[in-house]
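Lab notebook, bench 4. The sequencing result for the construct came back, and we need a structural model before the next group meeting so we can plan mutations. Quick request posted to the team channel:

Model the 3D structure of this chain.
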Amino acid sequence: MDMLAAALPAASEARALLNAWQRDLPLVAKPYDALGAAHGLSGAQVRAVLQGALDGGQASRIGGVFGVGAGGAGMLCALRVPAGELERVARIVDAEPGVNHNYARDHALNLWFVATATDDERLQASVDRIERATGLAALRLPMRRAYRIDLGFDLDGADDAAPQAALPVAPVSDALRPLAARLEEGLALVERPFAALGEPLGLTEAEVIAALAEWCERGTLRRLGVVLRHHEFGISANAMTVFELPESEVDAAGERLAAQPGVTLCYRRDSAPGWPYTLYCMVHGRERGAVRALIDAAVRHAGLADRRHEVLFSTRRFKQTGARYFSEPAS
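Done. Here's the predicted structure in token form:
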């Protein structure tokens, strides 16, 4: 097999390549060949690097990250878990197929998870099942607007990419939902992955490439490339900062906050009884002190230092997988 025979780059070089390949996967018949050409590698070597990242858990898939509003439904939820019960409750949450992220955070609301589904009815049912199984009421916080989300931030902490404009996202058409569902599973590591993606659906390679190009242009896909798991690269400190703001100020504040160095995610969510916060941002880093310094600077420069806010550091990752908006995940 050519992948096995290909000489692999050194580990440090492979890491740099994965970092560069997080976005802008070439929309051509042989994208892995095109990626390799810029680095003096063959397509087989590129596929070998990607396969190694998948096998080692550094990457979750090669595929797309869909924009908020492209399809399906998603929601951030939180549970107030009694002392000594966190492990048991986390296992129950992890077992729900629609949950793709589940983190412990240092707050009275100490377990935070994200659930996704193909529609809101299925999403609510998923969270209902968690409530019944745990005996705990979940705080439900649907997203309303994204200001900066999942850009594939730099592994070396040198991300100076400008935040994407918060433009309306064109939803996936009903006719192309099966294609979106297959893309969520990830591209195959074959010479012509777009042909392989479309073949079971009766779509030609050219039709698949045209559809993905349109999705990228219209914001349906936020990015297309390798989806990395930052914990496996030592970026294990992260904090979610939440702000209470008058409704009329949230969007302007969100746009300012999203533009600050170090902010990797920034979005607006509904408030809930006992939870007045509507603006959220995430900062990731290698150690807690550096993350806290980035948060303090971002809050100050965004003009939010005098606004009520809380910083919730993660203390443990229980689950992190790809979201499923267009197909039901396997039970």
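The two ends are 33 Å apart (CA to CA).
Will bring this to the meeting.
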